[in-house]
Write a structure and sequence with these properties.
CATH topology of the domain at 35-172: MetI-like fold
Order of helices and strands: HHHHHHHHHHH
Helix content: over 70%
Largest sheet: none
Number of strands: 0
CATH superfamily of the domain at 35-172: MetI-like
Length: 224
């Protein structure tokens, strides 16, 4: 079979997948990647949430700074990885920073768009009750733009995961990205494809879980 060493048979991939799921080393590296991605999403997403609310709530600031987010958003974030290494070292910190930077832009832009879509009547109601800025954020802004916020974090999670895995392939001794590049260097193609399948499945599960946050209550728990 042509290219059988590069694209192994499905049976070989299935055997490698079973072997992978039975390996304790796999779960240690899985935890490392999930932890780094979760921290990246919390840090990058939290900063993006703040920036998005500020830019979306101010026409002047939005016009002044939002174009820069659109310009920098599509930039390959891997070019910043050497800077992350200088700032945070070669440990997990640089991978978390890479993931946080990657997810920042889609979340911030989605939140800014959601802020501008909030009906003005809701904002006036909150102001009429003399709500503080913190109360406006938690009681008015976030509930009113739940869907764009969740969609932004859903997209941000995928990009954060890509950023973390990509960083792990460059300079790391743990994580799923490290395992992928390690098997590639060993030319263990079945194990590499098995890892890719696992990463794809985990991404789909996480994406489905986050998407459920925007589903109507009747669809999530049944109508009562």
């Amino acid at each position: 079979m042509l290219y059988q060493d590069v694209v192994p048979p499905l049976q070989a991939i299935a055997v490698a997948l079973i072997r992978l799921l039975g390996s304790g080393d796999f779960y240690a590296n899985l935890w490392a990647s999930l932890y780094e991605t979760a921290v990246a999403l919390v840090v990058g997403g939290g900063a993006a949430l703040f920036v998005g609310i500020v830019l979306g709530g101010s026409r002047f600031l939005g016009r002044a700074f939002e174009p820069y987010l659109y310009y920098l958003g599509p930039t390959p974030k891997i070019i910043f990885f050497p800077i992350m290494i200088m700032w945070f070292g070669v440990g997990p910190g640089s991978k978390m920073a890479m993931g946080a930077l990657s997810c920042f832009f889609p979340v911030a832009l989605s939140v800014a768009v959601g802020m501008r879509a909030i009906p003005p009547i809701l904002i006036r109601v909150g102001q009429s009750f003399r709500a503080s800025q913190a109360q406006m954020v938690t009681k008015v802004y976030l509930p009113a733009m739940r869907e764009p916020v969740v969609n932004g974090f859903r997209l941000g999670f995928g990009i954060a995961l890509i950023g973390v895995l990509l960083a792990e392939t460059k300079l790391s001794n743990q994580g799923l990205g490290f395992l992928v590049i390690q098997n590639y260097q060993r030319f263990d193609m079945p194990a590499m494809y098995a890892l890719i399948i696992v990463i794809f499945a985990l991404s789909m599960l996480a994406n489905a879980g986050i998407s459920r946050l925007t589903a109507p209550r009747s669809r999530r728990g049944g109508a009562h």
